[in-house]
Amino acid sequence: MPEAALRRSVAINVAHGNAAAHCADCEARHIGMCDALTDDEISFLARTAQRTTVAAGKVFIEEQEPAAYFYNISAGNVRVFKSLPDGRRHITGFMGVGQFLGLDVAGSYAFSAEAMGEVQLCRFHRKALHEVFGEFPALERRLLNIATHELTVAHDQMLLLGRKTAQERVASFLMTWAERNEHCPAGGVPKPGQKLPLPMTRIDLADYLGLTIETVSRSLSAMKRDGLIALDHAHEVLLLKPQRLADIAAGEA
Length: 253
Hints:
about 25% strand, alpha+beta, 4-stranded antiparallel β-sheet
């Protein structure tokens, strides 16, 4: 092999090796999108990734802006929201490690996304990612299936929340958030005594659940009074009786 070609080959292999090593150590490797990919698929996907850190409070996806990038969250939490005609915004979800952002509608983002704290992202330029898809069409199908599934789950959850009482909505959120943070299997119930981080504010939670902040606070206080949860920290809840919470969420209480 000519020396120049050999140097290029070594450089490419080193770059791929570094990318693979980064992915192996990433919090998101075995969560969400990345968990569905083999090591070989991850290696090829990683070669297009631009790793970036977003400061707390920064909006990194703007609704209706050209959808130039896909994002995968490798650390931190993100609030997703829609802008209303009167200038207000409505939070439609909270995204965490391993979740995939960047679905577009006719080439534009369908929502905005803001870092709740410092967030680390793998950013993929749409054109570069499509080139990888050209080499590995099965990878494209796999990623789109995951993204479509998560979108369907989010829509179903919003429909259910719209039909529930305030306490049922809060209990539903706690169960869903516990599952999303891998404190219980899908459709399961966390173990008693499980600590659940709540990086969102009460205002965020009220917005997402379609309630006032006073109603959210009253619901949490009632759950604490009944011995279902403990609230020793503003951004953490201790699930004392998760089965009871699951029953409330299902409207069986």
